[in-house]
Amino acid sequence: MNRLVLLSIIVIVGGLIISIPLLSNQLANAGSTKKIQFTQTITSTQDPGLGHNTEQMAIILPPNSGSIYHGSITYSASQPVQIVVLHQIDKSDSKGQPTWTVDGNTFYAQTTIDSNADGGSLDFTGAAIGLHSTNSSQFTATVSVDGWIRVTTPEVIQTTTPTTENYTIKFAKSTIPVQIPMHEGIVNGKIVYYIITDSSNSLVANTISDKQNWKVHVSPVLAHVPSTSFGNMFVFTNGITGNGTRGYQDDVLSFTPSDKQYSPLDKVVEVSWNVGRGPFILNSTQAILDANMTGKIRLVVTDTIMNTPEIVWDNGALSVRTNKVLSDQTSYLDGQVLDISVDNMTSTFVGHRGWGPDGKTIYYIITSGTPEGPTQTMKTQNVPSLSILESSARDLYHFANGLQGAGPFGYQEGISSAQPGDSAYSPICKVSIITWKDPHNAKILENKNDIDYEVSNGSITVQEASVLGNNYILDCPIIDNPQKSSKGINLR
Q1: How does pLDDT run across 122-166, given as a tens digit for each residue?
Q2: Rg (the chain; Cα; Å)
Q3: Of 285, 295, 335, 353, which residue is 20 to 30 A from 276 by alpha carbon distance?
């Protein structure tokens, strides 16, 4: 592709993508978002950027005015190459950062990933992406792309792929393993192991995140959950040095999943030893209350609520999958845990891909749910107390028909009404079911606005999922994607 051709792409009125083989017959209409999925062998040409005339470039996804690509790319090249991701910027912002331009008027900030390799895979977001070589030797590359282009006007790209109920959508990394650090606690004298995923208090969340080197998200909603929906977690602020969350003896929790009163949510109660009255190990709620009554300790009930699902408890544990190989068809079956290692103090969950309310990729895990029927199907713990949390849950929309995909019912992946950073984010989910009235007209929906638009059109119905009148509630916290590129190019 020479400079004249690329310049034409950039300045075409309305951002119309030219008819190149890479994109023909690969786009599925999703309102203002288009699907891109192809495998193609390409040959590099002289880099058309100003000042790059001795270098080689193979444009994979060309600049398209007003549009953003995001997705995954896998490539194999005839020589080591760099990955170049371009981000359109104003000319006034071009100073002080690497830029790329073909005409001196339209500028792109340039992210270069120099892996010094002739193949690899990565996630990307940008206005264009290509393979680049700093020498003048021509190279060839075979590239597979699975992603999307978000455009400002839906008529920019016309649909060329018919959408029927048999049409299948595939995404890279629809499921991922998520390894989470475990904490040791005590319930009625017995050791339990649990994880911490969310906190209503940002300071507590940040402190625990730093200590365990794994992100605890802030969920302001948890501060207002019903008082009957959580247990207590007694956290020691002094006394015997140990592995508790404050660096002293193990935290003491109220219940295990074997108890009817169990909830994955716990309110933090701080325990402090009074001078000259201890310390010694307190290994149950009753022992703590007795020590408080006799003046040995002081209790401070905080406003902090945390999501602390128990993984292993006395005579019990979450079900570990027998089949460790994840696929789109089985990710919600046969258990939600891939591995539990008490020696390494880690548990590894199945991470399910979905969309946040703004269309960004999210991953979430499932630690428990209610009612019993769905939890038996997923082989996760049935926790009846979750039903109390319906008013404190975020909505999670799943699809009962339409485009086949990696969702729990075999159709497209789900959409969350909130994500970390939102004031409405909660680790607790209330599941609703989306049904296309005519599955042959189904298209990709990837955010809450898409759902609202199709409801107003009468194309879909949305109904709360229930079993025998009981709503379907999950403890399904959103987690940071541990497989994001450390080079900072996965900006979805």
Answers
A1: 888 888 899 999 988 899 999 999 888 875 433 322 333 333 344
A2: 26
A3: 285
State the chain's mean pLDDT as an integer: 84
Question: How many C-beta atoms lie closer than 10 Å to residue 444's C-beta?
Answer: 21
Q: Which residue has the tokens 């008013």?
A: 391
Considering the entire predicted model, what is its pTM?
Answer: 0.67
Task: From 145, 163, 187, select the one nearest 60 (Cα to Cα).
Answer: 145
Core vs surface per residue 40-74: b (16+ CB within 10 A) or e? eebebbbbbbeebeebbbbbbbbbbbebbbbbbbe
Contact 337, 447 (CB under 8 A): no
DSSP at 216: P
- Residues 162-187, mean pLDDT to the nearest whole number: 74
> What is the model's pLDDT at position 366?
97
Q: What are the structural domain ranges in the chain? A: 3-150, 179-312
379 by Cβ neighbours in 10 Å (0-12 / 13-18 / 19+) ranks as: middle
Question: What is the rounded CA–CA span in Å between residue 313 and residue 148?
Answer: 44
The angle subtended at Cα 256 by Cα 253 and Cα 262, nearest 5°, is 90
Query: Residue 26: CA atoms inside 13 Å, Cβ hemisphere, count?
Result: 20
